[in-house]
Design goal:
With about 180 residues, this protein is mainly α. It has a domain of about 120 residues. About 70% of the residues lie in helices and about 0% in strands. The chain contains seven helices and no strands. The relative contact order is 0.15.
Length: about 180
């Protein structure tokens, strides 16, 4: 994991949280806000390491909770749980396939809010739940699923554009003469 990719993921988390708070356009049309942090967590789990998962869970969770009505820090554990669960099985996942990225983004965007609501109910808080919550949960899951392949394309493009590729050197030189046979 390069420091450039780590900084780009953390910057994207900040911008995703800020965008949802500053521009409520999708919430007026769809009657819900799309949380992009689980989609970013899928990217961090498949392309990064445990340190990026922890950084993204802490940074993204605290940024999200500071701009929402959630108690401070309640989003940390669901984001980390989603990211770590994907990280444990990343060798079995077809991480370069857009369909697999969509499915993982959909699942992560569905599980993270459920875990957050479970933590809120366990902590004695009473979140607003009703039949409209089912619609919001479905739209958030679809939005996260659609955003995940876009994140993969965008971060891969940034990685190709902003970083150097390692040159593979072989031990064979073109100007070397190979002697065969006995001396």
């Amino acid at each position: 994991m390069t420091p450039m990719r780590t900084m780009l993921v953390l910057l994207a988390a900040f911008l995703a949280v800020f965008w949802a708070a500053a521009f409520p356009g999708t919430s007026q049309w769809l009657k819900t806000e799309i949380d992009l942090l689980p989609a970013l967590m899928v990217y961090a789990s498949l392309r990064g390491g445990p340190s990026l998962i922890v950084l993204l869970a802490v940074w993204g969770g605290l940024c999200f909770d500071s701009l929402s009505a959630n108690p401070f820090g309640v989003s940390l554990l669901p984001l980390f749980a989603v990211g770590f669960a994907i990280y444990l099985r990343r060798d079995l996942i077809l991480r370069d396939q857009p369909y697999a990225q969509f499915v993982l983004g959909f699942a992560a965007s569905a599980v993270a809010p459920l875990l957050t609501v479970l933590l809120l109910l366990t902590g004695g808080h009473s979140p607003l739940l009703g039949w409209g919550s089912l619609w919001q949960w479905l739209v958030m899951s679809l939005g996260g699923g659609l955003a995940t392949p876009i994140f993969f394309l965008g971060f891969d493009w940034c990685d190709q554009t902003l970083s150097y590729r390692r040159v593979t050197e072989t031990s064979f030189r073109q100007d070397r003469e190979i002697r065969r046979g006995r001396k």
